[in-house]
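Please review this pair:
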Amino acid sequence: MLMINFLRSKKLTAAILGLVIIMLCGLVALCACFISPYNKTYDPPIFLEGEYSIDGGEWNEFDPEKEIQQTFNKIVFYGRPLSSITSENTVTIIGKNIRYTLYDNRGTVITQHRYYRDEEANKLLKESPLSDYYKESGLETLLVKPDSLQSNYPDTPGYIVHEIPGVLLNRDRNYFLAVEYPYESPKQYFSDCFDVIMGNTHAAYVSFFHNAFPMVMLFALICFFGVMFFPVAGFILGKINYKFFSFGSLCFFWGLFMISETIGSYLNLWVYDSVVCMITDVLTNYFFAIAMLFYLKANLEKSLNRAIANSFGIMYFIFVIVAIVLQFTNVIDLYASSRYMFAYTTLSVIVMALLLFRETRSNKKAFYMLISWIPLAISILLDIFNYYLIFTRINFYTIGIFITLVYQIVCVVLDLRTQYKEAIRYQQMQKELYEAKVSVMVSQIQPHFLYNSLTSIAMMCTKDPKLAKSATINFADYLRGNMNSLKQTSPVPFTQELEHLKKYLMLEQMRFGDLLNIEYDIRAVDFSLPQLSVQPLVENAVKHGVGMKEDGGTVTIATRELPDHFEVIISDDGVGFDSSAPPKNDGRSHVGMENTKQRLKDMCNGEVIIESEPGKGCVATIKIPKEYDSK
């Protein structure tokens, strides 16, 4: 109840809106600070103009204004620096999983991203013109970062952001730029793993805040909602909802995945080790895949399907741990092993889809879940074809997961809205249930009922003390049962309801004597129903049926089991009434009967059917569906 009140309060809405406004204001301030007339950047595909050769092939002229959309293992450029490069400018190279070397036509190395052993590294550091530049500028502490000549993982290029001062590039001299992609698979377009930013000091930061920062803020909000909103929604009914909780995790890791995709090229601005940058980017992909598998598993209901889904999720997590160990032991790096993880991810998603398909007959939600993941399945298939055929540079997986998760967010929000309404209705029902129980209890211990029962017991004390003692104990048990019913909030076994009913009928038999006969025809007891739901019907049969007949009559309580439901039948041969006629305004309250019908509907999806004819008695039938009772 406290959680619902918190969700309904205006404070939560104000907190969320305040956070959004703060983040938007921060975005505007940062963009205004870094994007100004004094901080303009120019992003050509390459900073030379001349010729290039791919994998030792023919030399071809290239346009420095057009991206090179060709796969490669080694590409060499030869030409002069662009005319826009001045001594005041800085050329920033952004690379993902590539090595490069820049040297002039005399063979002097200007800068490079290539790993050597200690002796070779020290020699190159001394001979590099870039080294002299940093020493003369008093920036010796930055000497190792632009060259990256030493590493614990010499076979892993990682992600780099290297700055080359424009003063080192002479317009009157030709230069060679050799770029290597050391992996045989997966293939990469040159423009996807090599970028150039030209501008003033800190041009890479300006490019980041201009191109990536707005999207980072958007995906950060997705992470925020994943961490805060959906787990809170899991408690809306007073208990953790695993589906909501797993979807919150999925949103959080999806946000991290998209942030990593957006800023992966810039990570080396803040993270010194280029290999750590690559590991961070790849691991966000892996943990997002794990979250996706466990969210799919949360939508399965059958125990066997859930066990299979759990095994695939756990195996995926083990494979991730193995891949990390292989990276840190320098056996195979995470990027090289990602193709195997991609294959296992595809297999796992296919298995999850088949498990969802198995449940579509009995689980409608599984069917809609399966349909919603079609965009992701199509994107994975397109990526597989593109992996081998290389027909486009589009990342279909990112598009597919975006469409799928946006749809999932809409579905979960609608589901949450339904859960919220049900929670409010549940609280209202509990209140009405309590009021109904009080009404039933009070109706049974009204003064005349109390006086009549005590008077009957008093008269028996002289005639039959043993029977009086038994009746007194029965009366006390009956009152205790009514009081205990106030604490009961869930259906009770029919046997418990029957025992309480017998105590009530014994007291009524003391009052009516031979005018009231009770018969039982109990053929089924293996079901549950709301407490005190049969008694109001029996009470009507006794007081307004048999009790209104001069020579009395019989009340019969029977139960039976049918293929799809259980029935409790209360019949009497009393005066009866016209059941088709509208209720009479006879001064009596019918709230108790209406509450009984409502409780049966809300708690058991049950119903009450009353049939009667004047002079022929009345039959009241309670129907309890089996599909509810089995849950």
